[in-house]
Amino acid sequence: MSNFFSKYATNKKFKKSEALCSLATLIILNPNEGLRFLHEGYPEIITRIQKKNTKFSEKPTGSISSQFISKMKSFITTEIPIEKNWKQGPEWYLAYETYQEAILTCPENSDPWWRIIEILHHEGRNDEAFAQYSAMPNQKIDEYDMVYTTPIIIGMLISVDKKVVANDLTMGVLYKFSANEKRNSKDAFLSALLCESHYLTIDKINDYIDLIIHIDQSLMTELAKNIALKAHSAINNGNLKEALTWINVALEIHADNQEFLNIKKEIEQDLKEGNTWDSIKSVDDFFRYLYRRLAHRFHPDLAKNDSDRDINTKIMSRINKAKSDNDLQELKKIAQEYTPDWVGYFIF
Fold it and tell me: Where are the domains of the chain?
């Protein structure tokens, strides 16, 4: 009889843990509904977050703003502080804490462990992600997670200098897909693995490139494109030296790629000319610099999805027409509409 009740209690905890995982996913996909359910069903999680994070500051600056909360539901009246230096959106932090609660509820449930590792990896906190991975009581993984989560684990392992382990894990997954003749799963896995380039730092990218070469050299063309996107992102953030490093890595893979060569030329020119807002001395300089910044910011290839890509394509059409017409006012208008934070730097 005691065994029966033990199994019943375990099953009950597992179901609650699964419910928390579903809630965390809802918070990410629909923060409005997710926060409402969190407030109604698990107020203790909000209380724990408040106790945990208010110690960082008497008036938390890194928090979900009162304006954000007012958009949730009118009964949400308390400001919820998020962890100091958190990089991703507030919904990701709330999901992270909810997954943590799922682990505390039922450590044997592997799903919240995988999700925590994913969030920490994307947050750039790979040492913590690896600690979570090492502490998992159950590393059993289903086919979905083998396709979409294992690439994240591989990226995390490379980030903490576990290159051999990452290679062994990769080969093991590919062997399972090949042995079971799951071609579609293998292709999806490789596609997800290529996306990991977006989350690796410059000092780890060569280990990642070695892994991809070992798997299939035909993947290198797509990998080079992904690395070039890292250069675009660095340009958007004003990190021209970092952008130059990334585009040089892409050129090490495809030395004769004209698009990469053009990007490198632009970066080197910007670095040479010292093209920052403060150094602009003439209207012509301002026009050229504003065009470049807008063109990099709204490059269609940097869009997160098809909808954003369509929007970027339309904006780029306006940007290119303004350049062709030598229309500075139109470029400034575009910036005012889509990048209002730049307007404060305008001196012409």
Answer: 275-348
